[in-house]
Amino acid sequence: MFKNAKFARYSIMLMLLGVCFMFFYSGLQNDHINILTPYLAQTYGWDDLKITNPVTYGALVVIILYLIIGAAFVKYGVKKILLPSIVLLALGCFGIALAGENYSLYFVSLFIVRIMVVPLQMGGFMLAANWFIKYRGRVLGIVTIGSPLFSIVGISALTAVANSIGLKAAYMAIAASLILIGALVALCIKDTPEDAGLFPDGADQAPYSEADQDAEPVTLKSILTDSRAWKLIISYGILQFVIVAMMAYMAVRYITLSTPEDVPNLFVSKALFWLSIGAAAGIPMSYVLGYIDDKLGSIKASLVLIVLYFFAVVPLAVMPVGGSVPLMAIWAFGVACMTGGMPTMHPCVTSYVYGRKQYMAANKWIMTIQAIPMAFAIAFMGAFNQMGQLTNAYYILMVLLVIAFITVLTMRNIPDANAADREYGKKEHTA
Questions:
Q1: How does it sit in the membrane (predicted)?
Q2: Residue 103 to residues 143, 245, 273, 413: CA-CA distances in angstroms?
Q3: What is the tally of structural domains in the chain?
Q4: Residue range of the domain that includes 387
Q5: The pTM is what?
Q6: Where are the beta strands (DSSP E) in 69-188?
Q7: 45: exposed, middle or buried (Cβ count in 10 Å: 0-12, 13-18, 19+)
């Protein structure tokens, strides 16, 4: 795709901004709860539910927001919706920075942040789906490096800043970074390659697979009666539920397993180190999954992803008090694979089933339904934690992952909508 210089310029900028989108999406969706919860509990004495309720309520609103944003992207284009969303997200971060003990301001600001990360994620996914077919998996594998990158840099940086000079400076810096990203989107991004006089992947002609593609609109009725859609909803709905539950409560899990020797707690004293090491090792897996997707298809890549999820969940289920170095190393690697791999594969598998042109039309309904259980993931973990049964929550997550694996297995005969333009469909096209 880099043979076309004009396409190369657009695609490189898209990938760079995509990494930024996923970095802040991962951090501001749920990961920053790992910093807010211990900091606010220690500073103001707030309990788990008081701190996380804005996220839970925001996640409920997100159920409908996926549908609204997806429909707006289809009707008006990504850029026109993404720009004001980034501004609102930055304002929410400013609000958290200035809130202090003002719970009302904190609640409203965190609520805004939770809902306004949705356009950031969906916009990045749709841009990648619009611009790439043959290289879609690998490009998304690069873009979604932003998620595990936050695990390496973001969590430790925010923790250090919050513990040294407070939350205000950390969230002010985040807000300023988001404004800069918005400016780059305004100047450097086009919704589709066709808008720039180009074709997907830098090709010199329109995609073969779209010449006779079914133009029937994707509606709620068609989604609800399509077994392919339900398999996507169940399998990737579980993966999204698990990732939200895992990322929001990993710090809390380590704190509950701390000993008096772990100062200030096990997460800060040991786990953060292994998170950085493991995440660095796991970052390439985001690209590897994308490569598998491009070469073997989204179903096989999805099965690999689910197996990698167990690397993140199992160690926390069996982690002893005081921690275990081997288990923390495995957990950290699993977290990187999970946070980088799921965002890579979700748009890939949806595009695989519905094709480039119908990706967002289908995705808006699929993600809306998936968001219903995902909205309760943090409350699920919080309830088990307050009952003193957080270990059981991780075993339940493992059972859910088994269900997801079986569901994806049943999708193995679903054809790729854009197979003629994918590498493993090339031979079939030229025959």
A1: Multi-pass membrane protein
A2: 35, 24, 32, 52
A3: 1
A4: 11-194+217-425
A5: 0.80
A6: none
A7: exposed
